[in-house]
Write a structure and sequence with these properties.
Elements: E1 6-9, H1 19-32, H2 39-43, H3 50-58, H4 65-82, H5 92-101, E2 105-110, H6 114-124, E3 132-135, H7 147-156, E4 163-167, H8 170-179, E5 182-186, E6 201-203, H9 206-211, H10 213-221
Parallel strand pairs: 1-2, 1-4, 2-3, 4-5, 5-6
Helix pairs in contact: 1-4
Length: 222
């Protein structure tokens, strides 16, 4: 593969079937804090971080003690009630192994907190195949801002033109474009093709991309 040297993956909704679980954890935490917000409203925002979700649904400044307490409680609920039941999408490891055989460096760019990322990668069974991990930090803006993708680009050591991002939400697509990185979208996160506009390719998920791997190679060898 001549033009692509590295692939940056999102995790939630891309490698692990966790988007609904994240939405439910937010609904639960907001309910405890006195905010009744529908699952559907929150589900449409999954892929962004708490720095985007909390101000939208509560009006709290994301740096306020109230916002930080709410985000912390959401994390506790997610890890205690939902994380143990999550599963990876089919063929995630097989896709990673195929890419590694082509000499591609694989990395992560996710809005997940660092203490959630490691168990998610264990569920996906790909931690040993990843070169670099960039997760949401306090001083970064979550997707669709490009901060996390830019961090993954810096860590990779490659030029942006030598990378492609794989994600499942409109926020991944926008963040990648803003970072100057080409993007592939997966439908398994719950978004339709018209909501993933701007992706160079769209697949159902890892299994579909693996089955059509030659298409991926042809497009990104150009």
């Amino acid at each position: 593969m001549t033009s692509v040297r590295g692939v940056i993956f999102d995790v939630d909704g891309t490698l692990v079937d966790s988007n609904d679980a994240h939405a439910r954890a937010w609904v639960d935490a907001l309910h405890e804090a006195g905010f009744e917000v529908s699952f559907e409203r929150i589900r449409d925002m999954i892929g962004m971080g708490g720095d985007k979700i909390i101000p939208d649904v509560t009006g709290f400044d994301p740096e306020s003690p109230e916002a930080k307490a709410l985000a912390e409680r959401r994390g506790e609920i997610f890890k205690q009630q939902y994380l143990p039941h999550l599963k990876a999408f089919p063929d995630v490891r097989a896709l990673f192994e195929r890419m590694r055989r082509d000499g591609l460096e694989l990395s992560i760019a996710t809005s997940a907190k660092p203490n959630e990322l490691e168990p998610l990668l264990r569920i996906a069974n790909v931690a040993d195949l990843i070169s670099e991990k960039s997760s949401h930090k306090e001083d970064e803006r979550s997707k669709p801002d490009p901060d996390i993708v830019n961090a993954a680009v810096r860590r990779s050591g490659f030029d942006r033109a030598e990378l492609v991002m794989v994600g499942d939400t409109p926020y991944d697509v926008e963040a990648s474009h803003r970072a100057g990185v080409r993007v592939i979208a997966f439908r398994c996160g719950g978004w339709a093709d018209d909501e993933l506009g701007g992706a160079a390719q769209i697949y159902d998920g890892a299994s579909d991309m693996l089955a059509n791997y030659e298409r991926f190679k042809r497009t990104f060898e150009k």
